[in-house]
Amino acid sequence: MGGVVITYLGIDIGGTKVAFRAEGDGGWSHEAAFRWPPPGDADADLAALGRAVAAVCDRARRPFDAVGVALPAALDAAGRVTAWPNRPQWEGLALRAALGELFPGAGVHCADDGDLAAVAEADRAGCRNVVYLGVGTGVGGGIVVDGRSVPGPRHGSCELGHVVADPAGPRCDCGRTGCLQAIASGPATLRRASELRGAPVDFDELRAGLAADEPWAVSAVRTAAAALATAAVGLGELVRPERVVVGGGFAMGLPGFVAEVARHTRSLGRPGFPAPPVEEAALGGLSSLHGALLLAKREGSTC
């Protein structure tokens, strides 16, 4: 590793884990991840994050020049967390300042994880008009129009998980009913499978049930796929994407899930206006992470 200069670091802060990807001269790269401790307080979370950052920096053997961070949390203009339902203990946390302390001397740039995932998938596909839907602990997403993320960083993130897919649907963590996230996220799908089965269902059991064509598993997944298709078609009417990309850990971990979303989406086309094609994320469950790295590179190059 002698002589390698590490320049950029991408961090994807998720609801259940945090992932890192570092890249440097000579094609060197390093990836790492850790799972959050059980929900407690923000100080414990930051301590765990600090230990993981120290390990990544140790592998780099020098400070990073620019850091991009993908976040599911909403930040105000001062960089404080205003909302993150999965970790409410972070509300009020001066996150941007805390990240700056972890990377002294580096430019630290934060953006919504769904927006960054959309940018990364558009970049990988060479497309200028893309809708991205990421299905994991929640449902995130982003829209790229003419090569640019919309609505853009100055106007807030693109909260596709809170598009209403069914006004009579289940209650969302945000307090509204029928949000896409309340119907199609991983936890929502597992809850529905558990209700249909009459017993608790974890992810591995859902995979096995789906492979065995169990009615409770098929129905639970079909409902999630139909809700995502409804959102995809509505967005297609607004922005006319070249493709809709579906990713996220939950979606990518269920064989046939994206194909099911595509099938439902095709059925919702109208004469003269076919529904947009639906494809699996080229970056798998790492779209947000690669988007964070792109953010570091693009912002770092302007510093």
Summary?
The chain has helices at 42-60, 95-102, 113-125, 180-184, 186-197, 203-211, 215-239, 249-253, 257-267, 287-300, and strands spanning 6-13, 17-24, 29-35, 66-71, 74-75, 81-83, 107-112, 130-135, 139-145, 148-150, 243-247, 278-280.
- In spatial order, strands of the major sheet run 3-2-1-4-7
Supply Rg. Answer: 19 Å
Spatial shape: globular
Put simply, the count of helices is 10
Textual characterization of the structure:
This protein has 303 residues and is an alpha/beta fold. It is built from ten helices and twelve strands. The strands form three sheets. The protein has a five-stranded mixed β-sheet with strand order 3-2-1-4-7. Strand 2 and strand 3 form a beta hairpin. Helix 6 crosses helix 7. The radius of gyration is 19 Å and the shape is globular. The two termini are 27 Å apart.
Task: Give structural attributes.
303 residues; five-stranded mixed beta sheet; 10 helices; alpha/beta; single chain; globular
Write the layout of secondary structure elements.
Blueprint: E1 6-13, E2 17-24, E3 29-35, H1 42-60, E4 66-71, E5 74-75, E6 81-83, H2 95-102, E7 107-112, H3 113-125, E8 130-135, E9 139-145, E10 148-150, H4 180-184, H5 186-197, H6 203-211, H7 215-239, E11 243-247, H8 249-253, H9 257-267, E12 278-280, H10 287-300
Parallel strand pairs: 1-4, 4-7, 8-11, 11-12
Antiparallel strand pairs: 1-2, 2-3, 5-6, 8-9, 9-10
